[in-house]
Amino acid sequence: MAQSTKPPIFDAVDLEREIEEEFRKLPQDRESQPSDFAPPSVRAPDIALPDYVEHRDGATEIGKLSAEAVVREYEAAAKDIEALGVELVEHVKQCEAMSRQTLVVIDELKETAERYREEAKRVFLQIETYSLVTAEVRKTCAEMREKIVAPATVRTKPKKNEHRAAQEG
Length: 169
Prior knowledge:
- It is a single chain.
- This protein is mostly helical.
- Helix content is 66%, strand content 0%.
- It is built from three helices and no strands.
- It has helices at residues 12-25, 61-149, 160-168.
- The longest helix is centred in the middle third of the chain and has 89 residues, at 61-149.
- It is rod-shaped and about 165 Å long.
- The model has no long low-confidence stretch (mean pLDDT 82).
């Protein structure tokens, strides 16, 4: 029977389990250590490797596990970036909707401004018309006042002396 020259392949999960069992066998009467309060270890998720990577022949188990961990982190970041893109598209859609609504409001504002200009023109003409009428009324009143205040002159025959003096003069 020939022995394999390849080193034995250890499963990381089995190795971790064996280490935990060894620690449990230690006596409990020792002082607590900082490592006793360490958070539980994080295991790699059971996610298949992305299609864009593949293990090479001859890579060690630790190398494979390290490469998988790194590629999973990159893949998680890439997915987060893609999710950010989807969120950004949603924001763009909201901006487009706001832009369309803004254009409608701008059209309404232009119409309102035009109505104000028309109203200003109407009021302007009305005021000038009233001003002309008022000026005409004042002129008529002044003429009437002059007619009322002016003494009435009655023509009489000139006296004889007045008539001669006028002729001589």
